[in-house]
Design goal:
By secondary structure, the chain is mainly beta. The chain is 12% helix and 42% strand. It is built from three helices and 14 strands.
Length: 180
């Protein structure tokens, strides 16, 4: 298995630009050049800033996540690392103080054990009615609360199921994250 951080991909023919279009549901992963990016009508896309104030300078986005569960909206403002290795929509780190405060103030949330195929408990999950972040609402989202990742300085990982729900553009040159 090999992992190459997305921000290290660049377009040599476009002065080394690093702009990626990712539409996992449509099966697209493309490198964009700056001229193409400038020609797009991005008014219908939500835009956020990419930052690297995380463990190992991994790219992340600051946003408010709204989890609808049990008929209530519950909000957690955080910095979420972009992680295509996380199979769920979101993984939260239970060692983080903001996550702990969120869980403590929402103690009525229904949590279930998260288990490996072998039955080992690795954390808990929230089975939400829906989850909204970065302008995108995902129904029946599973949010993992994990005990792993103690070196991470963010609140969680933005995972694969988010990227299956919406096309995104990662403009690493200008630190922008676009979601359609």
């Amino acid at each position: 298995e090999i992992s190459i951080p997305l921000q290290y991909f660049y377009n040599e023919a476009d002065n080394g630009s690093s702009i990626m279009y990712i539409d996992l549901a449509g099966g697209h992963l493309d490198m964009y050049c700056r001229d193409h990016m400038n020609s797009l009508n991005l008014k219908e896309w939500n835009v956020s800033r990419i930052n690297t104030r995380t463990y190992m300078d991994m790219p992340a986005v600051k946003t408010v996540m709204t989890i609808r569960e049990g008929g209530r909206d519950r909000k957690l403002k955080g910095n979420y690392v972009i992680d295509f290795g996380n199979a769920e929509m979101m993984a939260l780190f239970n060692h983080d103080k903001k996550v702990q405060k969120f869980l403590d103030s929402n103690s009525d949330m229904q949590l279930q054990d998260a288990k490996t195929p072998g039955g080992q408990v690795i954390g808990q999950i929230i089975l939400s009615d829906e989850c909204t972040l970065l302008g995108k609402t995902i129904p029946d989202a599973v949010i993992l609360i994990t005990r792993t990742g103690s070196k991470f300085t963010s609140q969680g990982l933005l995972g694969l199921k988010f990227f299956l729900a919406a096309p995104v553009i990662l403009d690493f040159d200008r630190s922008r994250f676009y979601v359609k």
